[in-house]
Specification:
The chain folds into three domains: 82 residues, no CATH class; 109 residues, Beta Barrel (Thrombin, subunit H), CATH 2.40.10; 105 residues, Trypsin-like serine proteases (Thrombin, subunit H). Strands 8-7-11-12-13-10-9-24 form an eight-stranded antiparallel beta sheet. A six-stranded antiparallel beta barrel has the order 16-17-20-23-22-21. By secondary structure, the protein is mostly beta strands. The protein is built from five helices and 24 strands. Strand 9 and strand 10 form a beta hairpin. InterPro entries: Peptidase_S1_PA, Peptidase_S1_PA_chymotrypsin. This is Trypsin-like peptidase domain-containing protein.
């Protein structure tokens, strides 16, 4: 059952062949072989790179060399890349990945807790990432992360304490968890038949900063300040992020998902698949994963750090592919703006 949760089905009515294969292969026997090969590798999603005019097919199973020879290199005239072993990890992960050696779990700058650090609601046993500090329209200062990190998938009570690092990450060799805020709100997650339920766009939560002097807008331990300016994602864009599990990583955006992206949620009080629209795929360019369990909520910025691009909210089980919500959509939905220069 757990394995089934890692690959939600594409919405009913979606062409499971991804594209009409006959348009790319003339021999009908080869068409049948290609279709069966796609069924075997289990297509998870298709990302379209409009900027470079190509598509990327993500599959749950690994794609062998013999299978790759069967699959068409072009579909309807569009060059296609296949990436295997990209099954989707449930939100939140059963247990967040232990922070790797390169990550500090709690990032500190000027003796203040920095963005990219571990955090959770006091009522949640798990850990995610403090993505950024934001200012609401009325001037309220808040911290930004995912609903499934501090919102307990719609079930955290208003006013619940937000701790950094998360108690899950506490040990004698690191700073004790500190209450840095109280839960403010979340954008509710909705599940159901994607033909009848409005597709989800955001997995976000806010918490009020109870003592703004405890935190800084710096990302990581002095790596770079949170940018105020926003850039829309495009294929091939170089990006980076700081997260609780994998620390500072570099990647490139490979495209926008062309069909609803089904993310399985397995929280204690919310177990369902949520279908997202306007989400994007990123892969690492520095030899490791771009993000893993526990990095949810990380702010993605351009390679030069000048513009914010998105918020990590899901990924493949092995970290090979990360899923991002555009930050412009996040800020518009919350009526917020990114905070820069705070205690830097």
């Amino acid at each position: 059952m757990a394995d089934d949760l890692s690959v939600p089905p594409l919405p009913a009515g979606t062409d499971t062949r991804v594209f009409p294969v006959p348009a790319a292969i003339e021999d009908q026997q080869d068409v049948a072989k290609a279709e069966k090969a796609l069924e075997r590798v289990k297509v998870v999603a298709v990302a379209v790179d409009d900027e470079r005019g190509r598509a990327v097919v993500l599959t749950k199973n690994q794609i062998s060399a013999s299978t790759k020879k069967i699959l068409p290199e072009y579909l309807e005239g569009v060059p296609v890349e296949y990436i295997g072993h990209a099954g989707i990890e449930p939100n939140p992960p059963v247990l967040p990945q232990a922070a790797v050696d390169a990550a500090e779990r709690l990032f500190v700058h000027n003796d203040r807790i920095a963005c990219g650090s571990s955090l959770s609601a006091a009522s949640v046993w798990g850990a995610g990432t403090l993505g950024a500090l934001v200012t609401l329209g009325d001037g309220t200062l808040c911290g930004l992360t995912n609903n499934h990190v501090t919102g307990a998938c719609n079930h955290t009570r208003v006013g619940m304490h937000i701790l950094s690092p998360a108690p899950f990450d506490a040990d004698p060799d690191h700073r004790a968890p500190t209450a840095i805020g109280r839960h403010h709100s979340f954008v509710a997650l909705a599940s159901g038949d994607p033909r009848q339920v409005q597709l989800q766009e955001l997995d976000v939560a806010l918490f009020d900063l109870t003592n703004p002097d405890l935190v800084t807008s710096m990302q990581g331990s002095g790596l770079y300040d949170t940018p105020e300016d926003v850039a829309d994602p495009i294929g091939g864009m170089a990006v980076k992020k700081v997260g609780r599990t994998t620390g500072l990583t570099y990647g490139e955006i490979i495209g926008r998902f062309s069909t609803p992206l089904g993310i399985p949620y397995t929280a204690d009080r919310f177990k369902s698949t949520v279908y997202f629209q306007n989400s994007w795929a990123i892969r690492a360019t520095d030899g490791g994963p771009f993000s893993m369990g526990g990095d949810s909520g990380s702010l993605v910025v351009t390679g030069d750090g000048a513009h914010a691009v998105g918020l990590i909210f899901a990924g493949a089980t092995d970290g090979s592919i990360s899923y991002m919500i555009p930050i412009r959509s996040v800020l518009r939905g919350l009526g917020a703006s990114l905070l820069r220069g705070h205690n830097v």
